[in-house]
Structures are given as C-alpha cells and as structure tokens.
Amino acid sequence: MSTHKITVKINGGLEQVEVPSNMTLLSMLREKLAMTGTKNGCAAGECGACTILMNGEPVNSCMVLAVEADGAELITVEGLAKEGELDVIQKTIIDKGGVQCGFCTPGILISAKALLSRNPNPSEAEIREALVGNLCRCTGYIRIIKAVHAAAELQKEAA
Amino acid sequence: MNNAHPGLPEFDYIKPATLADASQFLAQHAGEARPFMGGTDTIVRMRDGFWKDKYLVEVKHFDGMTSIQFDPAKGLTIGAATPMNKVVAHPDVNKYYPLLAEAARSVASYQLRNRATMVGNVCNASPAGDTTGASIVLEGTLIVHGVNGIHSDPLKTFFLGPGKTVLKSGDIVTAITYPLPPKGWAGKYIKLGRNVLSDLSIVGVTVMGYPDGTAKSGFRFRIALASVAPVPFVAAAAEALLAEKPISEAVLEEAATTTMDACTPIDDVRGSARYRKLMVRNLTRKALAEVWAKIK
User: Fold this and answer.
1) In the listed set A42, A58, A79, which residue is the last one of a domain according to the structure?
2) Interfacial A residues in 98-157 facing B (CB < 8 Å)
3) Overall CATH class of domain B12-58
C-alpha cells in the first residue's frame, strides 16, 4: 500500500506526516500526532465526536482520508484555547453545565465554534440544526444549547 | 462484527493529473477502482467490507468539479464534487432552484454535508437518496467523462437498481446540469424520518408543479419518491392524471392514492411496507396541496 508525505497546518503549527492511503484524518491526529482531544466515537460520520475544522469548516475527521488533508489548515479542540485562556464557548459550556462525561465535548465545541463564526446570533432552532450531527448521551442537550446562546451573548458584548 | 471500530482495509489512493488519465486508470482496473469524491458513503462501505476496491481515484481536484454556475439562458451546472453545504448556501440555487437547496439541507448533519456531494448521492443510487427526487423533477442530467470522451446521462434513465446505475468502468461524473425550470413553478420535499433532522428517510416525497397550457388540466406535476422502490420512483400514472383532470382537492387525493398504489416499498428496519404506503399517500397529498396552493 502506498504512503504519502503530507504537510498540514494544525492549530497554527506546520506538521509533516507520512500517512498510508487508508489512514483517516482522525487516526492521523490520534495515532501519528498523539492529539487525542479529537475522539473516535462511531467512525461512521454519525456521532460527531471527531469533528474538527478543515479550512474553516467543520468535518467529521473519520470521514476524511489523511492524504486528502495535504495543504489544509486544521483546527482541533486543542487549538481553541489561546495562551492559556479558554475560548468563550469552552467557558460557557463549563458555566452552563454542558459537560458530563465529556466524550462528545470536543466535537460539540468545534461545531458550536463554526456555527458562531458563520452566524454570530443563532436562534435555538439554528443551534439545534447546527449540532444535529453531535450526539451526547449525558446532558440531554439543553445545557449545551444554553451554552451556545451564552457564548453568542458574550461574543456580542466583547465586540 | 467483532471490532466496533475496524480500520479501513488496504487500498491505494491515486491522484491522476488529468481526467483522461483518471478514466483510463478506472477502466484498466474495472471492478477494483472507483472515483473518490466526498467519501461519506465510500469510507463506511469500505470499512464494513461491502466494497473491496484496491484503488480510490481522487477526482475532486479537476477543473470545475467544485464550482456552481448559473446561466440565465441555459440553467444551472453543479460540479460533481461540490459539497452539499455549498449547494444549500448558493444564492442562485436558492433563487432559481430552491427545491435543490431544501433537499440537500435535509441530508445528515452540517459537518457531513461539508463532505457529502449531490452527485455522490445520485451515483450511489440509494433508493433513499434525499436529493435524487429534486434532481429528477428538475430534469437533472449528469455530464460524464468516459474513456471515449464526454457524454450525458439524464437522471430519469440513470438508475438500474439499488446501488446500480448505467455508469461503466472509466466513467467519471463531472457535473450535474439542470435546465431553466418552467415559469411559475413551485416544489416541495417532504422527508419522513424517525426524527425531525438528520435521519435517513422512511419515505421521501418530492413534488413540483407548474402551469402548462398544453396540458388538459392547465398544469403539470412531477412526483418522485425515495425509499419506496428499488430505484428512485417516478409516479408517472399520477402525473398523467394531474395533467388530464381539472385540479381539485378530490383530484389531488386521487393522485396521491394512485401514487401509493403504484409504489412498491419493502419492510425494513426503518419502517414496514404498509406504513410506507400509507405515508406515501398522505405526504404526496400534502406536498401536492402545498405546491398547488403556490401555482394555481
């Protein structure tokens, strides 16, 4: 099986990685780069635990081949906090109790972050639609939705 | 399955320099290579062992594969590898072909739609494809690059069975085109899933209608159904009836019943055949009434 040398920008830093054809972007992050913040839930594009930003848009990293990411810019949950300061969505999901076991949280944070950057003032319906691909077994979603609302409010105040 | 998360089987990822090279490679490796677009079906089917290809051939990088172009004289062209979210957000799609945006938006989740493509949805020929109905009623045609050059395949005659189409080894769909829709048209997609968003359809009903002086009733309707037959189902008898009889609530009801009687759903994990038939009647009636209210 062929391998490919790729260059990706992850959370601002350049990484050169050699990946086999059949390696998913999720496996590359977790197994080649030891970036285990991104979770492997269903490996079928259903649960959203592996969601990362690829060139600014959220994707299921289990549904992308690592080789396809050559030249791409990736943001994972590890890249949300800046200089020790949590991102606003990280703060509000803690404040509102939107984290229980935490397994879905990295994907939820990325999906929410992407929503807030394309729509800074989402309605509840828009939040629900944006998060439909992120399953959570613990929280019942209500506190997560409240956290996204709160993050939108904080963003507005800061602007 | 013993392992909940098996890795992908071994294959080689190939990125040809030209479309001609890609078609040639695919033809030379018939049965063991396939074009690779969004991957949202391919990766799952490879991992679960349903597809055993030795080569995945990248096609997203070719010219025009991810662009959307609208020509007010000719119609719409969507590059085959255009992600669904780009279709959903495109101003010309929303202005002139809102039914396409509505159908694409009903697929899975936002992050999946950043990878999934409408042409992939069509080429995988799932009877449950959400966007297929809209593409059929809007008279979509696939532009195909094969070993002998370029040809086109109208969607109406494209599907042969679940997962089976008229495409041959070496064929790469490069775009889907739609003519200008008829004047005064309206469309509706009603998807019945187990929940409001994101699920596969138990039944999907696509209806479009428009005024047409050449029809006895003064109107023509097109009806396409998902998940009720081995291939996307066109309700031809109901369409003929609606072109013939002056439209009334009773005639819409009759057309919905005719549609129900003509479709051949199966029992499966998402719903029984009987339930599907009844839902076809109810949702077809509902979609027809909504479209009729807009075009009459």
Assistant:
1) A79
2) 111, 114-115, 128-130, 132-134
3) alpha beta
